[in-house]
Amino acid sequence: MSGENPALALYAAHGAALAERYETVAPAQLFAPVADLLPVAPARVADLGAGSGRDAAWFAGQGHQVTAVEPVSELREAARLRHVDAGIDWVADQLPGLAGLEGRRFDLLLLIAVWHHLDGLQRQEAMGRLRDLSADGAHVVLSLRHGPEQPKSGVFAADVEGTISLAEANGFRVLRRVEAEAQQRQDAAGINWTWLVLAA
Prior knowledge:
Layout: H1 6-13, H2 15-22, H3 27-30, E1 44-48, H4 54-61, E2 65-69, H5 73-82, E3 89-91, E4 106-111, H6 120-133, E5 134-146, H7 160-169, E6 173-181, E7 192-199
Parallel strand pairs: 1-2, 1-4, 2-3, 4-5
Antiparallel strand pairs: 5-7, 6-7
């Protein structure tokens, strides 16, 4: 996400409260719609926009080698402390460029509640970088948010068909498309999600 994205400032200002909310969601329930497509440990996992570290810690706890990328220092440092024994490699970087991951390849890349913070041009760049970072046979899991659009706050409308077309143009295959309800009670009103699993 660009440093100009106002969503980053929001996360920085309210990181502690947001992290508490994120941690109330059980990853096993969150990932249930795509659980059969997740890799068997040990796999190289990149959690892009890792937030509180909830999902990164869950995957690390299953024996995966996890790299958690989080651009907001307030969230990243709190997550590092919260999950200090999880063995997570924390990286200060952001979409769409992800320069800090140059030369690395992953078996699973996660973008959970992240894609809506990228505008159209950023999504094009990000999809190309996801392909670059994907090992042979890698899976990419994206959750696409459907709800009020607030471009001035860095929240852009989901475009499922456009995302699929962009993925296919970058050499991905769509393995799954599934609709899911919001997991956080505060987000339930008027917000739902489409989950995509892409294969490299």
